[in-house]
Amino acid sequence: MFQYDFMQNAFIAGTAVAVMCGMVGVFVMARGLSFIAHTFSHIGFSGASFAVLAGWDPFYGLVLFTLASAVAIGRLGVRFFRRDASISVILSLFLGLGILFLHLSAKQASFVSSILFGSVVGISGRDVWQIAGLSVLVLLALALGYRMLKFDSFDPAGAQAAGLPVAAISAGFLVLMSIAVAEAVQIVGALLVFTLMTIPASSARCLTHSVFSMLIVSAALAAAGVWIGLVLAYYTNWPASFFITSVEALIYFIALGLQQARERRPA
Amino acid sequence: MTHSISLEHITVSLGGEKILSDVSLDLRPGEFLGVIGPNGAGKSTLFRVILGLVEPQEGIVRLMGPQGRPATPSQIGYVPQSRQLDAETPITVFDFVSLALPHKYRPWLTRRDKEAVREALRLTQSGHLAGKSIGRLSGGERQRVYLAQALVRGPGILMLDEPTSNLDPGAQEKMAAVVHRVCREKGIAVLFISHDVNLIAQYADRILYLTRGHYAVGTVEEVIRPDVLSPLYGTNVRVEHRGARLTVLTDPADRVPICYHEPAGAKR
Fold first, then answer.
1. How far is B14 from chain A (nearest CA, A)?
2. Quick check: B87 contacting A, CB < 8 Å?
3. Which of A149, A207, A208, B88 is deepest in the core (most CB within 10 A)?
């Protein structure tokens, strides 16, 4: 299976994105941003459609739109976006815009399905290095901001009391998350961003007792899901996104079961 | 015994309402100052002024370090009133306390960092909790761990905003005793907000009694007196001594008592 370039590309890009999303996801969950991440992916869909209409690489449209929304939320404050109503309005608005852009660009259905449901097997050699490079950059930023981000994510009141620049931390993390979402859209598609952003982190939370081990376990579970999904997709010819999502979900239910079994056992 | 605070003629209005009016106060090095007063009296606002989060319309806040050198709010260990922690937060007490270590970028902990965490846990009698998950602690244990987190930076001043509310009487007592010990052992000046005058009376060197627009400072004997408290409330106030317990009531007796002065442990 590795004799094919497209499978090599899929494995490299998939791993890079999975590791990065697994780690970013830990903080997404801790900060309660999972639905904002989901909204970002729909905004990203709209961005990709716009890029196609404008004749650019769809990835640039994705990153441009998600980054712009991260900056906008950073300005408005996350609280505005926590409201269910705000989220559903923005999400619908951008999905609608995406549909309009697609209609105007008269692009065929294959593009729509690849952006909504992922196209990990269709990633080109040039894209692979772009994706991997961006993942490394995000991870470096995460390592640099790790201490402050950890404090603010897991004990926001304490971080504020200790005088940390909480507004800057929040805005900075939104930017990282927007890039992570744009990359995840490439692998699993806009509709399945949860697959890499939130499921592995939630599984890791059931299995570990420290933030650092959560990061490692979350990244490992995300990567494992992508690998297994790619192998199954190769042999069955069914969509990789389906398998990745199913494997991640299966891992989650196992982790949840293990956690509950551990709690029920008398101490 | 190094850090101190000096407030001179502090006046703060928020949203057109005067919260603090001409408050002058010294927190002496190593002193335990209890802060009491009704809800909305401006206790938390006073804290925010000292932390530099609220700019007073009038007056000066002076933080002083060793040898009277100016200090910054970063040398204050502050334990805020409300804290929402998920019971499933997968963090041990040790890691939770280490969050507040002063270094900002280095992702790992040095031996010295770990020593500082252990010392903070020892001071707050929480050493045995180090490996436990923060979400699984009782209310009293949590408050002591929050205190440990504030202590891990080695502050010269401690400010605690109602650390004993929502605790049972035994845990309140223990919390106040722990803070008192830290104050004496480390010579850290303490500002401690509480609603329980009897708890404060046991440990505080002096108290600051705040009502909206008025205040009084002094020892418990100097402040908890009808002639001092009545002007603060603008009505007649009775102080009852039941054994060693103090109860503050507005007069006439058929009106609602100032219930936050009812000793929390009437059954204690």
1. 21
2. no
3. A149
Q: Where are the domains of chain B?
A: 1-71+156-234, 85-149
Q: How close does chain A come to B83, measured CA to CA in Å? A: 6
As a CATH number, domain A5-191 is 1.10.3470.10
pTM: 0.87
Residues of A in contact with B162 (CB under 8 A): none
| pLDDT tens per residue, range B179-198 | 999 999 989 999 999 888 88
Cβ-defined contact of A161 to B107 (cutoff 8 Å): no
Query: What is the per-residue pLDDT across A107-125, written as a single tens digit (0 to 9) for each?
Result: 666 777 888 887 777 788 8
* Whether CATH 3.10.20.30 fits B1-71+156-234: no
Contact B107 A148 (CB under 8 A): no
| Max Cα–Cα distance, chain B, nearest Å | 62
Cα(A129)–Cα(B113) distance, integer angstroms: 39
Write down the domain spans for chain A: 5-191
Residue B218's DSSP bridge partners are B207
Please indicate whether, in this complex, the C-beta atoms of B83 and A157 are within 8 angstroms of each other.
Answer: yes
Q: How many CB atoms lie within 10 A of CB A119?
A: 21
Q: How far apart are CA B219 and CA A228, in angstroms?
A: 71
How many Å lie between the alpha carbon of B77 and the closest alpha carbon of chain A? Answer: 7
The token duo for A179 is 């890039």
Q: For residue A151, what is the nearest residue in chain B, using CA coordinates?
A: B99
Q: Is B153 on the interface with A (CB under 8 A)?
A: yes
